[in-house]
Amino acid sequence: MDYRRSYVRDLFLLAPGTETSAYGWVKTRRDSKGISFVQLSDGSCFKDLQIVIEAGVIGEEVLRQITTGACLRFDGVIVESPAAGQAVELKATGAELFGPADPATYPLQKKGASFEFLREIAHLRARGNTFGAVFRVRNQAAFAIHNFFHKRGFHYVHTPIITASDAEGAGEMLQVTTMMESIQPLEGDEGQISYRIKGHNPADDFFGKPAYLTVSGQLEAETLALGMTNVYTFGPTFRAENSSTSRHLAEFWMVEPEMAFCDLEGDMHLAEEFLKEVIAHLLDFCGDDLAFFNQRIEPKLLETLEHVVTSNFEHLTYTEAVKLLEASGENFEYPVSWGTDLQSEHERWLTEVKVGRPVILTDYPKEIKAFYMRMNDDGRTVRAMDVLAPRIGEIIGGSQREERIDRLEARLRESGLSAEPYWWYLDLRRFGSAPHAGFGLGFERLLMYVTGMKNIRDVIPYSRTAGHADF
Question: For 48-181, where are the alpha helices, taking DSSP H only?
Fold first, then answer.
């Protein structure tokens, strides 16, 4: 056995009469008139391979252990299948049992299970239809993202996971420290620990200053763009938001391109190209998986995705959007007025009702955007942009960055941030500053959009949220 063995997806392409082997896990088994029919999956594709076992071909001891969840190799011959929905099946000539599974205790049974329950057995849920499909789409989406930037000459860079600065100025960061005074079991629960942080000067800590898990790789990516022109990051980021909504994670992945010699218009153009190309790739390479989501999770999913790929995105300023919302006559849960951040209901109304296709909003009030965004000449708005998509609202956020040091220092003061932690960021404006722009896309938000899954915990293998860090 080695990694070059055939995947189940490859076996469907073999001609009848071909001798081969199939590896995988049993989904179901049924017996009829001395013949056993086994549905085998190895996760390589949505379709299961049917294994036909005639009486006497496999020893009784092994046959008895071919139950749901068991892992085996079946040797046999590819034959034409009389069953609907499958062209071929494997007629078994032998089998090797790698790992049995007790059918009485195996938690992933044929009957349906709630997504909440499946999160409790996240170590097994990839064997099911839904999560096998989710993680295959995740894999192809990651490949499409890297391919998109590679074809355009971007450099893939790795920015720090541990940082001393807060890119967004939000303060919702997870601290990294070794200053623990004591570690001891909680009373009554030997499996848990508690600790207290020493009351020492931060200079005594491991990094000699307060350090955190990063909320974004953007600022560091800017330093590399202003020396390598076009770069992108694709890595984990962290937020300490104490939220239990279906849209928040404490650990998630971000895609963040940065481009020197680029303005907001170029940034918008790249974002539109990016979204269309990644979705088009998934439509081409994940057809069976997306068809499943279209049928079982989100009706009209395929229609929505195809519409995004073929649409010309509408461009509106934030001010224009607010006027449209105010004149809509809709009874929104959150009132709309200039200077307030738009909510998902506002973004969906714009894309689904008013415009009927994706929208890129620009030129937001400076008070609701980050300090690093370039100030417009009106002194009230910044060169920010958000890409809004039907069914989900904001999916990409970006801006032209402020390249003028005096304006950047003023924005730091206005935002109540000390310039000292950003000395290196300010240096970029002191030494060979250049216009530059970029955007950020939450990878899990994209996956929710392309699969129709309703909870962000269900598009990442192991979710990290407040109070939950299992597995």
Answer: 60-64, 115-120, 129-151
Q: What pLDDT digit, counting tens, does each position of 143-164 carry?
A: 999 999 999 999 999 999 998 8
Residues 6+ apart with CB under 8 A from 384: 362, 363, 364, 369, 373, 397, 398, 399
Helices 405-414, 423-430: crossing angle, 10 deg rounding: 150
The total number of structural domains in the chain stands at: 2
The span from the CA of 345 to the CA of 328, in Å, is 13
Residue 144 and residue 17 share a domain: no
Alpha helix locations (H) across 182-329? 218-228, 264-285, 287-296, 301-310, 318-326
- Name the nearest CA neighbour of 223 among 442, 441, 426, 439: 426
Task: Note if the pTM is more than 0.70.
Answer: yes
Residue 35 structural domain: 8-99
Strands 230-238, 155-156: parallel, antiparallel or unpaired by DSSP?
A: parallel
Of 86, 91, 5, 101, nearest to 46 by C-alpha is 86
Tell me the C-alpha to C-alpha distance, in Å, between residue 471 and each of 58, 118, 120.
37, 13, 9
Distance CA(81)–CA(454), nearest Å, equals: 36
**SS3 category, 300:** coil
- Domain co-membership, 246 together with 139: yes
Do residues 242 and 466 lie in contact, with contact meaning Cβ atoms separated by under 8 Å?
yes
pLDDT in tens, 206-241: 888 888 899 999 999 999 999 999 999 999 999 988
